[in-house]
Amino acid sequence: MNAIETFLSAKTFAVAGASARQHKYGNKVFRALLASGRETYPLNPVTEEIEGHRAYPRIADLPVVPESLSIITPPEVTRRVVAEAIEAGVKHLWMQPGAEDDEASESARNAGLTVIDDGACVLVLLARA
Q1: Which residues cross the membrane (predicted)?
Q2: CATH number at residue 115
Q3: How many distinct structural domains can be found in the chain?
Q4: 63: domain range?
């Protein structure tokens, strides 16, 4: 199984950078994962609810540790999110286009996580499924 198949085969997901604003990429990714029938949690430190789902400020605040984490944050935030993901025990990361950070990728790989950071877009892949 390749990294994308591994990411998408997880039982639980979270979206770091999920947004309540429907035109934002973080909202589109969150809705796409939900629409595909996946158990998905939104992560946003300043929003309480996204698409009718409680939003959580940090990975440690989630009711479960997500197996897969989609990251849609600025690179400087990505570093913090990845450090939290490693500490929490997340297994798979997908840095969406624009969220990539070399330092975060290296840290995640060194910790044994599956990392997708090559510019691939989860929305494109879900649209094909």
Answers
A1: none
A2: 3.40.50.720
A3: 1
A4: 3-128
Return phi, psi of residue 66, to 5°: -70, 140
Q: What is the Cα–Cα distance from 23 to 101, expressed in whole angstroms?
A: 24
The 10s digit of each residue's pLDDT in 110-121 is 999 999 999 999
Q: Distance (Å, rounded) from C-alpha 128 to C-alpha 92?
A: 20
Q: Please state, in angstroms and rounded to a whole number, the distance separating the CA atoms of residues 49 and 2.
A: 33
63 burial via Cβ count (<10 Å: 0-12, 13-18, 19+):
exposed
Rounded to 5 degrees, φ, ψ at 97 are -50, 130
Measured distance CA(53)–CA(93) in Å, rounded = 22
33-62 pLDDT, tens digit per residue, is 999 999 999 999 999 999 999 999 999 999
